[in-house]
Write a structure and sequence with these properties.
With 126 residues, this protein is α+β, with helices and mostly antiparallel strands. The chain contains two helices and six strands. The protein is globular. The two termini are 17 Å apart.
Protein backbone atom coordinates (compact mmCIF):
# COMPACT_ATOMS: atom_id res chain seq x y z
CA UNK A 1 0.00 0.00 0.00
CA UNK A 2 2.92 2.38 0.63
CA UNK A 3 3.56 2.77 -3.10
CA UNK A 4 0.08 4.31 -3.48
CA UNK A 5 0.26 6.83 -0.63
CA UNK A 6 1.83 9.53 -2.80
CA UNK A 7 -1.34 9.62 -4.92
CA UNK A 8 -3.72 10.27 -2.01
CA UNK A 9 -5.19 13.76 -2.28
CA UNK A 10 -4.28 14.35 -5.92
CA UNK A 11 -6.83 16.74 -7.36
CA UNK A 12 -9.57 15.39 -9.62
CA UNK A 13 -9.01 18.52 -11.72
CA UNK A 14 -5.47 17.32 -12.46
CA UNK A 15 -6.22 13.58 -12.70
CA UNK A 16 -9.72 12.33 -13.41
CA UNK A 17 -10.34 8.65 -12.66
CA UNK A 18 -8.93 7.27 -15.90
CA UNK A 19 -5.90 9.55 -15.92
CA UNK A 20 -5.17 8.48 -12.34
CA UNK A 21 -5.32 4.84 -13.46
CA UNK A 22 -2.98 5.65 -16.36
CA UNK A 23 -0.55 7.42 -14.02
CA UNK A 24 -0.51 4.55 -11.52
CA UNK A 25 -0.05 1.98 -14.26
CA UNK A 26 2.87 3.90 -15.73
CA UNK A 27 4.63 4.63 -12.42
CA UNK A 28 3.80 1.57 -10.31
CA UNK A 29 3.27 -1.19 -12.88
CA UNK A 30 5.60 0.16 -15.61
CA UNK A 31 2.87 -0.28 -18.22
CA UNK A 32 1.42 2.25 -20.64
CA UNK A 33 -2.29 1.80 -21.21
CA UNK A 34 -4.72 3.42 -23.63
CA UNK A 35 -4.20 7.15 -24.02
CA UNK A 36 -7.47 9.01 -24.35
CA UNK A 37 -8.70 12.57 -24.51
CA UNK A 38 -12.24 11.73 -23.41
CA UNK A 39 -13.46 14.05 -20.68
CA UNK A 40 -14.88 12.69 -17.41
CA UNK A 41 -18.37 13.98 -18.27
CA UNK A 42 -18.55 12.19 -21.68
CA UNK A 43 -20.14 9.04 -20.28
CA UNK A 44 -21.02 7.28 -23.53
CA UNK A 45 -17.55 7.92 -25.01
CA UNK A 46 -15.96 6.56 -21.82
CA UNK A 47 -18.04 3.41 -22.08
CA UNK A 48 -17.23 2.98 -25.78
CA UNK A 49 -13.48 3.21 -25.13
CA UNK A 50 -13.85 0.86 -22.16
CA UNK A 51 -15.50 -1.72 -24.43
CA UNK A 52 -12.77 -1.33 -27.08
CA UNK A 53 -9.90 -1.45 -24.58
CA UNK A 54 -11.40 -4.40 -22.66
CA UNK A 55 -10.02 -6.68 -25.39
CA UNK A 56 -6.61 -6.21 -23.70
CA UNK A 57 -7.95 -7.16 -20.27
CA UNK A 58 -9.06 -10.41 -18.63
CA UNK A 59 -12.09 -10.33 -16.35
CA UNK A 60 -11.20 -11.91 -13.01
CA UNK A 61 -13.29 -13.25 -10.15
CA UNK A 62 -10.88 -12.38 -7.35
CA UNK A 63 -9.15 -9.02 -7.26
CA UNK A 64 -5.48 -8.52 -6.60
CA UNK A 65 -3.17 -5.52 -6.61
CA UNK A 66 -3.04 -3.79 -9.98
CA UNK A 67 -6.41 -4.96 -11.24
CA UNK A 68 -8.71 -2.31 -12.64
CA UNK A 69 -12.25 -1.88 -11.37
CA UNK A 70 -14.89 -0.79 -13.89
CA UNK A 71 -17.83 0.97 -12.24
CA UNK A 72 -21.22 2.21 -13.45
CA UNK A 73 -21.17 5.50 -11.56
CA UNK A 74 -23.32 7.79 -13.74
CA UNK A 75 -26.82 7.65 -12.25
CA UNK A 76 -28.21 9.25 -15.41
CA UNK A 77 -27.00 6.27 -17.49
CA UNK A 78 -26.74 3.47 -14.89
CA UNK A 79 -26.04 0.60 -17.31
CA UNK A 80 -22.72 1.82 -18.72
CA UNK A 81 -19.20 1.98 -17.26
CA UNK A 82 -18.05 5.53 -16.52
CA UNK A 83 -15.57 5.20 -13.66
CA UNK A 84 -12.34 3.33 -12.93
CA UNK A 85 -10.10 2.56 -9.99
CA UNK A 86 -7.01 0.43 -9.30
CA UNK A 87 -7.07 -2.34 -6.73
CA UNK A 88 -4.31 -1.93 -4.15
CA UNK A 89 -5.16 -5.26 -2.50
CA UNK A 90 -8.09 -7.65 -2.76
CA UNK A 91 -10.44 -5.36 -0.78
CA UNK A 92 -9.39 -1.77 -1.46
CA UNK A 93 -9.08 0.43 -4.50
CA UNK A 94 -7.53 3.79 -5.16
CA UNK A 95 -9.62 6.15 -7.27
CA UNK A 96 -10.69 9.74 -7.61
CA UNK A 97 -13.95 11.60 -7.96
CA UNK A 98 -14.76 15.28 -8.19
CA UNK A 99 -16.23 15.14 -4.67
CA UNK A 100 -13.35 13.30 -2.98
CA UNK A 101 -10.17 13.79 -5.02
CA UNK A 102 -7.88 10.74 -4.83
CA UNK A 103 -8.71 8.35 -1.98
CA UNK A 104 -8.52 4.70 -0.99
CA UNK A 105 -11.85 2.99 -0.37
CA UNK A 106 -13.19 -0.48 0.25
CA UNK A 107 -14.49 -1.97 -3.00
CA UNK A 108 -17.53 -3.31 -1.13
CA UNK A 109 -18.95 0.23 -1.13
CA UNK A 110 -19.31 -0.07 -4.93
CA UNK A 111 -20.41 -3.71 -5.06
CA UNK A 112 -23.76 -3.07 -6.75
CA UNK A 113 -22.20 -0.62 -9.23
CA UNK A 114 -19.17 -2.70 -10.22
CA UNK A 115 -19.29 -4.00 -13.78
CA UNK A 116 -16.15 -6.08 -13.37
CA UNK A 117 -12.59 -6.36 -12.20
CA UNK A 118 -9.96 -6.73 -14.91
CA UNK A 119 -6.30 -7.71 -15.18
CA UNK A 120 -4.20 -6.53 -18.10
CA UNK A 121 -3.12 -9.47 -20.27
CA UNK A 122 0.52 -8.44 -19.90
CA UNK A 123 0.23 -8.62 -16.10
CA UNK A 124 -1.92 -11.76 -15.91
CA UNK A 125 0.99 -14.05 -15.03
CA UNK A 126 2.23 -11.81 -12.22
Amino acid sequence: MNKYIKYIGLSFNDYDCYNLVKLIYKEVHKKDILNTNVKHYESQKINNQYEDESLNWLKVDEAKEGDIVAIRLDSNIPKIVTHFGVMINNHQMIHTTKATNCIIENIAKYHKLTSGIYRHKDLATN
